[in-house]
Amino acid sequence: MVADLQNILSGDVMMGLAQAAGAIVLCLTVVALCRRFAVHVEREAVISIGRGLVQMVFVGVVLALLLHGSLLIGAVILLLMTIAAAATASRRLKGIGSPLLLSFWAIFAGSGVVINSSSSP
């Protein structure tokens, strides 16, 4: 399975990594300019760049599994992504009863409509 994933992702991943490297260079340029003008954002920039790179790679792998994996793997990954999104959204909902369930069903319904319409002929 790992070999199949590597074959599927080889060109796309390399392009994505090149784009990420370009973005990192731009971010480091901004940090250098900030440092030059005594605006200290080095620590925050390094943390943000690292976090963003890890997120991009993770999302890329998940999307590749969704697009090239079996239907069961895709369904499980979509369910986990929906739960994670609902948990994130529910933290921002104050004063609403059952924010996790409300968020889950709203995200599930919205993504279900999109997935259903994209799979139609």
Structural description of this entry:
- By secondary structure, the protein is mainly alpha-helical.
- It contains 4 helices and no strands.
- It has helices spanning 2-36, 42-68, 71-90, 99-118.
- Helix 1 runs antiparallel to helix 2 and helix 3 (71-90) packs antiparallel against helix 4 (99-118).
- The two termini are 30 Å apart.
- The model has no long low-confidence stretch (mean pLDDT 79).
Structural features:
single chain; mainly alpha; 84% helix; 121 residues; flat
Structural category is mainly alpha
Task: Indicate the mean pLDDT.
Answer: 79
Binned, the helix content reads over 70%
Helix segment tally: 4
Gross morphology is flat
Largest sheet: none
- How big a fraction of the residues is strand? under 5%
State the gist of this model:
84% of the residues lie in helices and 0% in strands. With 121 residues, the protein is mostly helical.
What layout of secondary structure does this protein have?
Elements lengths: L1 H35 L5 H27 L2 H20 L8 H20 L3
Helix pairs in contact: 1-2, 2-3, 3-4
